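Q: What would this chain look like folded?
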Amino acid sequence: MRTHLKKIAVLSITTLLLAGCAAEESGPLDYAQLSVGLDQQCESYESGAGADQISVIGDIGQQPEVTFPVPLSGSGVETAIVIDGDGGAVIGGQQVLLHFMGFNAATGDSLQASDFTSENYAPQDLVEGAVPNFCKALTGVNVGSRVAVLLDAESAHGALGIGGLGIGAGDGVVFVFDIIDAYLPRANGSSQPAKAGLPTVIRAPNGQPGIQIPSSDAPTEFASAVLIEGGGQPIVLGDSVVLHYTGWTWLGEQFDSSWERGAPATFPITNEGLIEGFVLALEGVTIGSQVIAVIPPELGYGDSAQGSIPAGSTLIFVIDVLGKQ
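A: My prediction, written as structure tokens:
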């Protein structure tokens, strides 16, 4: 399987790229409904006197006009809600889609901005304790919102400065974000009965899976089972899907895991880009689900070795379906 992650844009301050409701019977659940019951992974946003001084004019879908007194200083991470959305709260430990605009809070200089009128959104992984501390800035904010964020120097760049951007060690940073969409941090839905003969999945509190493999020989035929059934849209061939996954050989050797990289992966679900067994495991599975698949060599990498995967390996994948792009 190819594990290339395609992103529309990168938002990271170090490169700057500063890089519950019931379902209606008529359709699948949306993010707000799918995320009900999931615990927050980061501390909730807090307002502050500094962020309250940031003026943002314009509607969602328009390039905002941003002004603030210079120099502007604050404490930690401050978030001001400019437009309050209704798409369900960001909970952290997940990926969100954003439009963004950044400024040096000490000088007022513009750093970088996306085109808020376009659909070229920037995917951003919200990771607890990361710098810049976007997880703290956005956790608790509703999808569909526009916010102004003031990060002090420690929260923005570890008080190290970014010389290439003209950001001094003591300079804070101002961001304006439109939160366009959010993806689940892990599968969330109804647990399904275990299927005989398949490995047993054990989940850590954050949802990361481990497995116990039967002592029997590897199966010779493809097998899969939905372990958690989500209520979102089903995957259709050609969809670009946001996933967390871990892969093992039948001998128990882990060879790949998005969980351990700290960010989900995004794949177009096609036979041209993925091994056939991975596609078979996902086609028709709904957002919010977790699925396990046992893939014999002829539906995996066959008689060819692939990195640390020996030739002729039977593969096991546990996959959380987090959303569609």
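Residues 1-24 have pLDDT under 50 and may be disordered.
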